């Protein structure tokens, strides 16, 4: 009986020892895998970048990388990429392993970016500031800025090439930019305001300095009147000071929405070169007076043409009498010349003079 019990207890202890050994082996294998696997910790900093976790800033400058770093720390609140060779911002370029980041500021200036694909900023729902200045954008998707509901400031200074100007209007018309407060588009050779509507934004500042805007039409002026909170900066644009500027001129005179109004200068016509737009006289931009003056010149030309036609018709209808009148004048002139010639001959020959006596 005791032998049977000892055998039973020995078998049970052996099973327990075997199970414990297996458990330790599994734990050891897990630890080894964890140590040798490329698992990224929250404190990891992307190569060639400087990270400051206290301020939440990651700065990557002057590198040869052609893509956005794929291992951006999840604690990043400010990401600065400058002087890289990022030609294209691809879809979800800032998503880390498919997760959203808490980033609020993203600076991408001076990176040579040429194209922005759809949903390039996906995964940044809390982004407040986006700086894309000083790039060479040739292609901007209509959905480039989708997924940025909290964006407050967008900087595109000296970035948009002529090929992408029309695309920019569609990209900015997205409802995702409904909270946009500040939009800067300086130095892009724009010829008009690239916003189809102003009421879909919460704009407080629109910077269009140093572009190629010659005039702002009735539709844009009406939109500006309706959005009183907007401040528009328009200096260093070549305004054409003719009657097409009438609506904008009166908006400028009666509104305080243009803080740099005193620096808006005329580039055409030559007589008004360098004259401040707000210093123009009303008659300088009065389309009615200009049209009336043009009409008066046309009317004068028509009257003179009619007088000429009537005169020619009179000459044509009286061509016979005019011809006889000309012949009579010619004969009278001939007779008179003969008399003068005869007298001349008498005066020149004394003998003829004596005979005449």
Radius of gyration: 44 Å
Helix/strand order = HEEEEEEEEEHEEHEEHEHHH
The helix fraction, in percent, is 25-40%
Low-confidence stretches: 1-12, 30-41
Instruction: Give the tally of β-strands.
Output: 14
Oligomeric nature of the chains: single chain
- Indicate the overall shape: elongated
Model description:
- By secondary structure, the protein is an alpha/beta fold.
- The longest helix has 35 residues.
- Helix 4 links the parallel strand 13 and strand 14.
- Helix 6 crosses helix 7.
- The protein has a 9-stranded mixed beta sheet, with no helix packed on it. It has a 3-stranded parallel beta sheet with strand order 4-6-8. It has a two-stranded parallel ribbon with strand order 13-14.
Q: Brief description of this entry?
A:
36% of the residues lie in helices and 12% in strands. It has helices at 2-36, 165-172, 218-226, 246-254, 287-317, 319-348, 350-356, and strands spanning 49-52, 57-61, 78-82, 88-89, 105-107, 115-116, 129-131, 139-140, 153-155, 182-184, 205-207, 231-233, 239-240, 266-268. The chain has a 9-stranded mixed sheet with strand order 1-2-3-5-7-9-10-11-12, with no helix packed on it. Strands 4-6-8 form a 3-stranded parallel sheet. Strands 13-14 form a two-stranded parallel sheet.
